[in-house]
DNA sequence: CATGAATGAGCTTTCATTCAT
DNA sequence: AATGAATGAAAGCTCATTCAT
């Protein structure tokens, strides 16, 4: 309900379009996150936003368009956050490390965004999955690049055991699932989460149980 | 017309209850898989099942109950399939290997079941996620046990870098995501899929790029 | 409200589909006639029919389909009535005479049908005008045939003053407009109406004012 | 920016009221002609006019009033055009002839006006039909006068076969319908159209097929 | 004068659910 | 046992209309 929105019943103050659009999108993300695309009702969104339904339709279009706008905004934010967190000119493992931390920080601070993107956008038929899968695709490509660059340095070819794309997909999936798991087990700090993944992925169980542990060096 | 018994329009044959229930559940799983919970309509389910709507309500209850029944049946099947695939009295890594292969075989042979369980049940608010998460929980526990048994053998305590539950969650998540990815990239055989995961998880990138590769021994 | 329809609020008696369809169509024609296509509301139609809205949608489809059904039924009735009224094997002028009388009798007895067909169906954009214009086209063709057969007997060619189609269109238009005018001046009997038109069309003002008058002979 | 006066976005030039009203009415007629009264939206009218909606309300009132204004203006124009075309002090048939030509010329040059008046105004319930029927009434009276003057000269009384009003209504209806038909068959010149009607009405089929043809004399 | 911002009210349509046969 | 017939309730969307600047 933003900051109390408008006292219900009264005609809303006149505000510039950009402000209203933000209010609406915020409300929409919240409602979509809570109920999912289908069960979310335009009525609830409009109430939450403190704005009448016609404004929503006039500014952001029908329900589908509104959802698309939400997805675009949130995936943009996520992408920015991760890219801002990654440092270039550091070894691949450190890049991964920083990316993961940024990702988990984002999820922690924007639970609703993540819920909409991961839990809801992917399951609704239609053009929505496409948007999110594009984002996911970028993540996978990024990781795949890291992996392959490592792999090719050592002369690994195209064996069954090694497929950059496949491994990257698995890694990204693991990160996503862990984020999901985190939503219901939020007492773990984000650094630890990233740390688990790094160890799992970089060293594997085998080395791990040997006491061999990956740790971030420098910054 | 009097003694013909089976006439009058298209009145369905009197069938034992168990058979009808199966027809209905099969249809429901198919329709839910295709449209998702909310967009699936009782009408379509009844048509697909070749059974009138009142029968559905009388046998399996309202839409929610019906969905719950679907989830229970399919998660039971998945669990059975995986448990049947696992061999006891083999080393932990081989247990994981067999479990993964059984899992992917199930997904390949029952795409609809998997779709309902993974894509749809988790995103609908309500008691459904609980059902599936229980299943997922059992999988995580199972994996965690393997991991922890390895870990404790080597004296690893509760350090930040090592949490059986967390790692298991990540692994299970990776396996699920890879299954999802597989639905749209089905040209990879299930053995290879399992192989990727094993290498990723057991050895990690680091060993992998050293040319060190995990391979199933014996059966 | 048909014959009191159902006492409002009570669940309607179970009736065979055909009966309900008729009720609905009757109500729809009445409501469309009164308000026109756009202003007619499905709510009013359903109330008038004594049937809930979902039945309308299930039996006759959406508003457009419903309107189409109305038009088809009514134009079919009009066509039948006129065709039943025309006698073959009588001179052309007598055919016209009988056709006109049948037409006006129909309009008198089915004011609503005529209103829907003439006043409303023609002005709504979409496929509706097509349906009615097809009917009108048949009427024009029929008249044109009469006219042309007369004309060609006398050796009239294609002069500017004589175009079967054009004249027939004018005649049909005159008949329609007179019907419309009649709706608001209903004290004239239908025979007289037809008589006016016959005189106007067959003899023209010129002969008329000479005292020359057309009159129906025999049957 | 302060003294620039005409700035800030797209704020329309301050224009005298009469000009604005014309802009609005022109747009309204165009939009009403295209979509009909109900489907025309105030939004589209305001966009077409290049004027904001509040101006429309302030200058010309609500939708109904606006439509009334349209009808008044256009029917006035039509009336003027026809009256200007008629010559006094010529025989009745020539008066009719000139009136018809003027009418068809107007329709040709103002298709939208005619569409609004004939196709739309008549079918909307409410006060609109009244406006147009008043116009039509004047046309009918005018024609009736011609007819009756002819008739009474010859001593025709009030017989069933002869009613000035009825005949005039039929004639006017025929002219209108022919105009409508013309909208979709515009390759016929207006003179020919008028010529058809004159022949039909003045001479009738009977004389026509005898080779007797009405032709305009002098101017 | 002129308008962007705002909404109440209403419409069509659909769906899960139940009754009567 | 089995179903066609029936509906309450709600959702998405649009429109004519007005207020505040």
Tell me what you see in this structure.
- The structure is a homotetramer of 219-residue chains.
- Chain A has helices at 17-35, 42-49, 53-60, 63-85, 92-109, 111-120, 128-153, 164-183, 190-209.
- Chain A has two domains: 17-61, Arc Repressor Mutant, subunit A; 72-209, Orthogonal Bundle (Tetracycline Repressor, domain 2).
- The first copy, chain A, contains nine helices and no strands.
- Chain A has 219 residues and is mainly alpha-helical.
- The first copy, chain A, starts with 16 loop residues before the first helix and ends in a 10-residue tail after the last helix.
- Residues 1-8 of chain A have low confidence and may be disordered.
- The longest helix of chain A is centred in the middle third of the chain and has 26 residues, at 128-153.
- In chain A, 69% of the residues lie in helices and 0% in strands.
- In chain A, helix 4 (63-85) crosses helix 5 (92-109), helix 4 runs parallel beside helix 7 (128-153) and helix 5 (92-109) crosses helix 9.
- At the C-D interface, helix 7, helix 8 and helix 9 of C face helix 7, helix 8 and helix 9 of D.
- The structure holds a DNA duplex (21 and 21 nucleotides).
